[in-house]
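hi! just following up on the protien thing from before. the input was this:
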Amino acid sequence: MNLTERTLAFASLGEQIRNLSPIEIQELAFRASNANAWFDEPNVINALNGIAYLLDKQNLQDWLYVYNLENISVKKVGVVMAGNIPMVGFHDFLSVLIAGHELHAKLSSEDTFLMQMLAQKLIAIEPRFAEKIKFVNILKDVDAIIATGSDNTSRYFEYYFSKKPHIIRRNRTSLGILTGKETPEELRALGQDIFQYYGLGCRNVSKVMVPPGYSFNHFFESIENLKSLSDHHKYQNNYDYNKSILLVNQTPHFDNGFLLLTQSEQFVSPISVLFYQEYTNTQNLNDQVTAAADKIQCIVSANGWYPESFDFGQAQCPAVWDYADGVDTLAFLEKL
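and the predicted 3d structure came back as:
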């Protein structure tokens, strides 16, 4: 397959995803949620929509034209995929295959069915991908590694794969920046950045930066439409647990019945908890953001006013060229 053929196959996969019927989506979500209760129908729909957006033919062509992928030396690329949100490993799946390499994927036990479904659909479109896709339990005899995990597992990956070309990703989270002038609509959109996928993704906002004396009353009022989150038993269990921890430790916090806010200099908050930290002026804000750059996946602000940030509500809408951890996966694959 040449690059054009690979690109057209993935564009066709995007078309198939866009044309899934409500019944087909419901069936996919049902089967996925049997293995992972976090993968409910709204989250599966959001993930499928995100993948369909990545696979828009024009988006793919705009992404690929800056790389030289026609005459690469084909390598076996091992990919350790995460399973925190539905099909979160898809971008690596796409990158390895569209570059022309052979994919050896170790799927997360939390997300096997949906990733295998995508592979089956791709092979049905272009059968030559069958020999390029291998799902494995152990990564061995591979030429390069892309691995996503926690800070602890990343240290293991760094040691175990140190002699092979690799990309090792660690814990990251996303940041919201507030000025106190946001409208209810903007705060409602920020709520989506916080709560989509129940806050489990690295692009979920888990901390907000606020000016001194910021009142969260308007924020709480604006996100009241999301209180149905507490209907999910796993989310409610996390909320109850984290609330008890804050109470036992007598940690000052705000509580609206489904979200807990507490001041912290940390960035990665537990599910159902949002950290906040004050900044005194723009320079102080910039200094704090810069100091934590290696922990931040993306930043959101109203209308994207903060440099290199997304608008509220867009944290979970990355373009195909928005690389995890800011590491250019395709450039890595191009040079193997």
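The chain has two domains: 3-170, 173-311.
The CA atoms of residues 37 and 234 lie 8 Å apart.
cheers
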